[in-house]
Amino acid sequence: MARLQGLAEDERELQAGETVSGPAAEAYRQRVAGANRRFAGHVLKSGKQARDLTGNPLLQIFHGDGMTCVLDPMTAACQLRGTIDDPMVTPDIDDCRPHCPNLARTDRELLQIQRSRDKYAEIVADTLAPPIRHQRERNQLERLESIIEAHERKAQDQR
Fold it and tell me: Which of 63, 84, 90, 149 might form a disulfide with 73, Cβ 3.0–4.6 angstroms?
Protein backbone atom coordinates (compact mmCIF):
# COMPACT_ATOMS: atom_id res chain seq x y z
CA MET A 1 0.00 0.00 0.00
CA ALA A 2 2.88 2.36 0.77
CA ARG A 3 4.27 1.81 -2.71
CA LEU A 4 0.87 2.67 -4.26
CA GLN A 5 0.63 5.80 -2.12
CA GLY A 6 4.13 6.81 -3.20
CA LEU A 7 3.21 6.34 -6.84
CA ALA A 8 0.09 8.48 -6.35
CA GLU A 9 2.32 11.23 -4.93
CA ASP A 10 4.73 10.78 -7.84
CA GLU A 11 1.87 11.21 -10.30
CA ARG A 12 0.66 14.39 -8.54
CA GLU A 13 4.17 15.83 -8.77
CA LEU A 14 4.49 14.93 -12.44
CA GLN A 15 1.13 16.53 -13.21
CA ALA A 16 2.28 19.64 -11.36
CA GLY A 17 5.25 19.87 -13.74
CA GLU A 18 8.01 18.06 -11.86
CA THR A 19 11.13 17.52 -13.95
CA VAL A 20 12.56 14.01 -14.20
CA SER A 21 16.05 13.48 -15.57
CA GLY A 22 18.42 10.57 -15.94
CA PRO A 23 18.55 7.55 -18.22
CA ALA A 24 15.34 6.03 -16.82
CA ALA A 25 13.30 9.27 -16.82
CA GLU A 26 10.90 8.15 -19.56
CA ALA A 27 10.44 4.70 -18.00
CA TYR A 28 9.68 6.46 -14.68
CA ARG A 29 6.96 8.61 -16.28
CA GLN A 30 5.43 5.61 -18.05
CA ARG A 31 5.41 3.39 -14.97
CA VAL A 32 3.98 6.06 -12.68
CA ALA A 33 1.15 6.80 -15.12
CA GLY A 34 0.51 3.12 -15.85
CA ALA A 35 0.55 2.07 -12.22
CA ASN A 36 -1.88 4.77 -11.21
CA ARG A 37 -4.25 3.96 -14.07
CA ARG A 38 -4.17 0.27 -13.24
CA PHE A 39 -4.03 0.21 -9.44
CA ALA A 40 -5.60 3.43 -8.12
CA GLY A 41 -8.22 2.50 -5.53
CA HIS A 42 -7.17 -1.14 -5.60
CA VAL A 43 -8.22 -3.05 -2.49
CA LEU A 44 -6.02 -5.89 -1.27
CA LYS A 45 -7.90 -8.78 0.28
CA SER A 46 -5.08 -11.24 0.95
CA GLY A 47 -1.36 -11.58 1.43
CA LYS A 48 -1.12 -13.34 -1.93
CA GLN A 49 -2.69 -10.34 -3.66
CA ALA A 50 -0.20 -8.05 -1.92
CA ARG A 51 2.75 -10.23 -3.05
CA ASP A 52 1.42 -10.39 -6.61
CA LEU A 53 0.90 -6.65 -6.63
CA THR A 54 4.38 -5.79 -5.35
CA GLY A 55 5.91 -8.09 -7.96
CA ASN A 56 4.24 -6.18 -10.80
CA PRO A 57 6.87 -4.50 -13.02
CA LEU A 58 4.87 -1.24 -13.04
CA LEU A 59 5.47 -0.93 -9.31
CA GLN A 60 9.22 -1.52 -9.43
CA ILE A 61 10.12 2.09 -8.56
CA PHE A 62 12.30 2.65 -5.52
CA HIS A 63 13.15 6.11 -4.19
CA GLY A 64 16.57 6.46 -2.63
CA ASP A 65 18.80 9.27 -1.45
CA GLY A 66 19.09 11.70 -4.36
CA MET A 67 17.84 9.22 -6.97
CA THR A 68 15.07 6.86 -7.97
CA CYS A 69 15.62 3.33 -9.22
CA VAL A 70 13.25 2.35 -12.02
CA LEU A 71 14.23 -1.27 -11.68
CA ASP A 72 14.97 -3.45 -14.64
CA PRO A 73 16.81 -6.41 -13.10
CA MET A 74 18.42 -7.28 -16.45
CA THR A 75 20.27 -3.93 -16.65
CA ALA A 76 20.73 -3.05 -12.96
CA ALA A 77 24.30 -2.13 -12.05
CA CYS A 78 23.73 -2.69 -8.32
CA GLN A 79 23.56 -5.88 -6.32
CA LEU A 80 20.04 -7.24 -6.40
CA ARG A 81 18.20 -8.69 -3.44
CA GLY A 82 16.82 -11.89 -4.89
CA THR A 83 17.40 -13.44 -8.29
CA ILE A 84 16.76 -11.78 -11.64
CA ASP A 85 13.83 -14.08 -12.43
CA ASP A 86 12.25 -13.62 -8.98
CA PRO A 87 9.25 -11.24 -9.22
CA MET A 88 10.05 -10.01 -5.70
CA VAL A 89 13.61 -8.93 -6.57
CA THR A 90 14.56 -5.48 -5.29
CA PRO A 91 17.59 -3.26 -5.85
CA ASP A 92 20.15 -2.63 -3.17
CA ILE A 93 19.60 1.14 -2.93
CA ASP A 94 22.72 1.41 -0.75
CA ASP A 95 24.76 -0.03 -3.64
CA CYS A 96 23.46 2.36 -6.30
CA ARG A 97 25.96 2.98 -9.10
CA PRO A 98 26.19 6.44 -10.73
CA HIS A 99 26.11 5.12 -14.31
CA CYS A 100 23.22 2.68 -13.90
CA PRO A 101 20.67 2.85 -16.73
CA ASN A 102 17.86 2.43 -14.17
CA LEU A 103 18.42 5.86 -12.56
CA ALA A 104 15.97 8.72 -12.64
CA ARG A 105 16.07 11.95 -10.65
CA THR A 106 13.08 14.08 -9.72
CA ASP A 107 13.03 17.71 -8.56
CA ARG A 108 12.51 16.41 -5.02
CA GLU A 109 15.66 14.36 -5.22
CA LEU A 110 17.56 17.21 -6.79
CA LEU A 111 17.03 19.18 -3.58
CA GLN A 112 18.87 16.41 -1.70
CA ILE A 113 21.70 16.54 -4.22
CA GLN A 114 21.93 20.32 -3.90
CA ARG A 115 22.24 20.02 -0.11
CA SER A 116 25.04 17.47 -0.56
CA ARG A 117 26.73 19.72 -3.11
CA ASP A 118 26.65 22.61 -0.64
CA LYS A 119 28.27 20.42 2.02
CA TYR A 120 31.06 19.39 -0.35
CA ALA A 121 31.55 22.97 -1.53
CA GLU A 122 32.14 24.02 2.06
CA ILE A 123 34.77 21.31 2.56
CA VAL A 124 36.49 22.17 -0.74
CA ALA A 125 36.59 25.85 0.26
CA ASP A 126 38.42 24.96 3.49
CA THR A 127 42.05 25.85 2.80
CA LEU A 128 43.18 23.79 5.80
CA ALA A 129 41.75 20.52 4.50
CA PRO A 130 44.43 17.90 3.73
CA PRO A 131 45.20 17.75 -0.03
CA ILE A 132 43.97 14.19 -0.47
CA ARG A 133 40.65 15.00 1.20
CA HIS A 134 40.40 18.24 -0.76
CA GLN A 135 40.82 16.38 -4.07
CA ARG A 136 38.42 13.59 -3.12
CA GLU A 137 35.74 16.06 -2.08
CA ARG A 138 36.37 18.22 -5.19
CA ASN A 139 35.75 15.15 -7.38
CA GLN A 140 32.49 14.46 -5.56
CA LEU A 141 31.50 18.14 -5.83
CA GLU A 142 32.13 18.11 -9.59
CA ARG A 143 30.05 14.92 -9.98
CA LEU A 144 27.13 16.45 -8.07
CA GLU A 145 27.36 19.68 -10.03
CA SER A 146 27.19 17.75 -13.32
CA ILE A 147 24.06 15.93 -12.10
CA ILE A 148 22.45 19.25 -11.15
CA GLU A 149 23.38 20.86 -14.48
CA ALA A 150 21.96 17.92 -16.47
CA HIS A 151 18.72 18.05 -14.48
CA GLU A 152 18.41 21.81 -14.96
CA ARG A 153 18.99 21.43 -18.73
CA LYS A 154 16.20 18.84 -18.80
CA ALA A 155 13.93 21.26 -16.91
CA GLN A 156 14.67 23.96 -19.49
CA ASP A 157 13.89 21.54 -22.33
CA GLN A 158 10.53 20.68 -20.76
CA ARG A 159 9.44 24.32 -20.56
Answer: 84
* pLDDT above 90: percentage of residues in the chain: 52
From residue 129, give the alpha-carbon distance in Å to each of 107, 122, 123, 140, 144.
32, 11, 7, 15, 20
| Distance of alpha carbon 131 from alpha carbon 128, whole angstroms | 9
Three-state secondary structure call for residue 134? helix
Computed from CA positions of residues 103, 100, 142, 152, in that sequence, does the dihedral angle turn out positive or negative? negative
Element (H, E) at 131: helix 131-158
Residue 83 has a pLDDT of: 73
Query: What is the Rg, in whole angstroms, of the alpha carbon atoms belonging to the chain?
Result: 18
The Cα 133–Cα 83 span in angstroms is 38
pLDDT digit string, tens, across residues 60-91: 899 988 999 999 988 999 888 877 777 678 88
CA 91 to chain centre: 11
Model pLDDT, residue 44:
65
| Residues shown for the chain | 159
